[in-house]
Write a structure and sequence with these properties.
DNA-binding, 2 domains, alpha+beta, LEC2-like, B3_DNA-bd, about 325 residues, At1g16640 B3 domain, single chain, DNA binding
Length: about 325
DNA sequence: ATTTGTGTTGAG
DNA sequence: TCAACACAAATG
């Protein structure tokens, strides 16, 4: 259901057939459809009648990628590798221009020349949405005039249905956890530079710490589950830390020294909440205690480990 | 009967 | 690359 096929016109088309090619993820199939241009007196000169009827000269559009249609409507098109990609027809010029802009952003990236002011034609969220879809999908949305809906729905997904899609996340930083980060200290040391750069409040080193509370921050994990940690600054060690709630996270995720925790931020228009994910260094390696537990179960045929075994993932 | 969008050309 | 123009293919 991911693959759409769009028709493209062959540039040096000697063949009279319309080439249909699949737009995959990123690439438009290259068609080297070359042959000698048809020569020879193909047709006579039967082309006079039309000239006499002064069709109101179709005025060209002031927008890039927009072309007038005979019926007064507007078409949008963009070129890719010598081939035209038709983006559909629209009632008004602006809608067509908008379609071109969207396509240009998807095909040529952030720096693409568009019709809208260079400043803000696309939010970070929209850019992410675009990149998360194939060119064919975007073109299809444009032609069906469903782009705006899909975009909104896509951005919703991040704020509503729990798991924020990968494309709606912006990585802030990662840290390989140390033994003490996953030990009994119930705290994660957040690299100072990263903390000051990415985490909410410029946590006052005396104020907030003096009161000893810091701030509570919510983090969504890969499964959409929300974790709440206390984030504060410890004067004693001159470091930023995540404390309350951290040990439970470590336990539930089975974090071990050397594993990595990644912090990112939702890129959706509104609430740019924080996200946390962990990358286990050795995927299939059972936890230290797991082996013993498994043996016990096997030996005695009793699920004595059932209660104690922490949930995986 | 209309509309879409492809074939095609020539300018930049 | 890009749009103008003509008109065949696609649609209702």
């Amino acid at each position: 259901m991911e693959q759409e096929s769009l028709a493209f016109s062959s540039h040096s088309g000697a063949s009279t057939s319309t080439a249909t090619v699949d737009l995959e993820q990123e690439d438009l199939a290259a068609m080297e459809n070359d042959s000698s241009p048809e020569l020879g007196g193909d047709d006579d000169g039967v082309q006079r009648a039309a000239e006499l009827l002064p069709m109101p000269p179709r005025q060209s559009s002031r927008y890039k990628g927009v072309v007038p249609q005979p019926n007064g409507r507007w078409g949008a098109q963009i070129y890719e590798r010598h081939a035209r990609v038709w983006l559909g027809t629209f009632a008004d010029e602006e809608a067509a221009a908008r379609a071109y802009d969207v396509a240009a952003l998807r095909f040529r990236g952030r720096e693409a020349v568009t019709n809208r002011a260079v400043a803000e034609g696309a939010s970070t969220g929209e850019l992410a949405f675009l990149v998360a879809h194939s060119k064919a999908e975007i073109v299809d949305m444009l032609r069906k005039h469903t782009y705006d809906d899909e975009l909104q729905q896509g951005l919703r997904r991040g704020a509503r249905a729990q798991p924020t899609p990968p494309w709606a996340r912006e990585l802030l930083f990662e840290k390989a956890v140390t033994p003490s980060d996953v030990g009994k200290l119930n705290r994660l040391v957040v690299p100072k530079q990263q903390a000051e750069k990415h985490f909410p409040f410029p946590l006052r080193r005396s104020t907030d710490e003096a009161t000893g509370k810091g701030v509570l921050l919510n983090f969504e994990d890969g499964d959409g589950k929300v974790w709440r940690f206390r984030y504060s600054y410890w004067n004693s060690s001159q470091s930023y830390v995540l404390t309350k709630g951290w040990s439970r996270f470590v336990r539930e995720k089975g974090l071990r020294p050397g594993d990595t925790v990644a912090f990112s931020r939702s890129v959706c228009g509104t609430d740019k909440h924080l996200l946390i994910d962990c990358k286990k260094m050795h995927r299939n390696m059972p936890e230290p205690g797991a082996i013993a537990a498994a043996r016990v179960v096997k030996l005695f045929g009793v699920d004595i480990a059932g209660e104690k075994r922490p949930p995986q993932r």
